[in-house]
Amino acid sequence: MSKDIKFYLGIDVSKSWFDLSIMCAIDHKKQPMQTHRFDNTAQGMKQLDKLLKDLNVSFDQNSLLVIENTGVYHRLLWEYCSTHNLPIYIGNAAHIKWSFGIARGKNDVIDSQRLCNYASKNADELKASATLNPVFIKLKDLITSRDRLLAQLNSTKVFLNELKLSNTKDVQKLMEQAHKAAMNGLEKSIKLIEERIQEIITEDENIHNNYKLLMSVPGIGKITAIYLICCTNNFAGKYSGKQLASYAGVVPFRDSSGTSVKGKDRVHKMANKELKRLLHMCAVSAIGHHKEFKQYYDRKKAEGKHSMTILNAIRNKIALRAVAVIKNQKNMWITLKKQPKKSLVKS
Asked: Cβ–Cβ contacts within 10 Å for residue 79, how many?
């Protein structure tokens, strides 16, 4: 009779290295945990691969690796797992930390051991993250680069405008000439990045199709559509509208307990702040350019609602519509026509 063997791995990732804790469970009996450290480089990945093969780790559903989302530093591990079909769960650092309860003391090795235990305790509930798609990484890096360059350009423009308040015309002209080359260079770089982003989107049929669908949602522009595709891996996880809205931090949660705590419904601070900012811009644009959103805003304002409360409701609706067009694979206007006539104004 064959034995039931499962492997649970926890890795604490840092910029220079990562600590691995690995535990084998034979017929549900946990074996002693091992810990190892590797450089967070291509050579370190080769050493990790050799160790896992020496330990006869199975590269299938009988293994699970848990790491925290570090933004950039876990990319090599994610790529390795995607290439070798090793299930990996990339979790929210705060969520995993709170699951430990009251924890005293920490270092890289202890954190990896805690992640390993987290994997063994929650293996039945954790859903492996999607495989790494280089296209999304490329798009994310390009969007981040565009944001950085745009921030530098806007900062320079603000600086020059502030100087007008005190400088003479001659000095102001000199300052503008001194910054002209740099500003032209930033504008040129931003334009090149935007062109490259459009090329990448056009090259992938699935991404391009979802991109066009998202663009049909009132208020959503090019950058927001691309960002939604990147942070959801082109909606590979089949997110619900409420899940996306909650991830973006635009869902109000109840804050009450017994008779003593009777707080107002509030959005949670734990959210993707960049996505929330983009949805806010989408909401402002929708109010300015789409009649139904403008009527909704005016009606709620007349009822005495706070401006930010109304804007948040519109951000929420935009997130729900974004998921709806992807799920139905139909243009927003086609989707609305086929649904029972229910105006946003009446919601």
From this structure: 16
- Specify whether the CB–CB gap between 214 and 229 falls below 8 A: yes
Question: What secondary structure, in 3-state letters, does the chain show?
Answer: CCCCEEEEEEEEECCCEEEEEEEEEECCEECCCEEEEEECCHHHHHHHHHHHHHCCCCCCCCEEEEEECCCCCCHHHHHHHHHHCCCEEEECHHHHHHHCCCCCCCCHHHHHHHHHHHHHHHCCCCCCCCCCCHHHHHHHHHHHHHHHHHHHHHHHHHHHHHHCCCCCHHHHHHHHHHHHHHHHHHHHHHHHHHHHHHHHHHHCHHHHHHHHHHHCCCCCCHHHHHHHHHHCCCCCCCCCHHHHHHHCCCCEEEEEECCCEEEEEEECCCCCHHHHHHHHHHHHHHHHHCHHHHHHHHHHHHCCCCHHHHHHHHHHHHHHHHHHHHHHCCCHHHHHHHCCCCCHHHC
Those residues with Cβ within 8 angstroms of residue 147's Cβ, 6 or more apart along the chain or in another chain: none
Tens digit of each residue's pLDDT (9 = 90 or more) over 103-126: 777 789 999 999 999 999 999 888
Tens digit of pLDDT for each residue in 174-187?
A: 999 999 999 999 99
pLDDT given at position 129: 87
Q: What is the pLDDT of residues 90-106, one digit of tens each?
A: 998 888 888 887 777 77
CA separation, residue 286 to residues 80, 145, 314, 337 (Å): 42, 27, 8, 19
Q: Which of 228, 263, 223 is nearest to 243 (CA)?
A: 228
Residue 133's contacts (CB-CB under 8 Å, 6 or more residues apart) are: 233, 234
The size of the chain, in residues, is 347
pTM (two decimals)? 0.79
The distance between the two most distant Cα atoms of the chain, rounded to a whole number of Å, is 90
Could you give the CA distance from residue 165 to residue 266 in angstroms, rounded to a whole number? Answer: 41
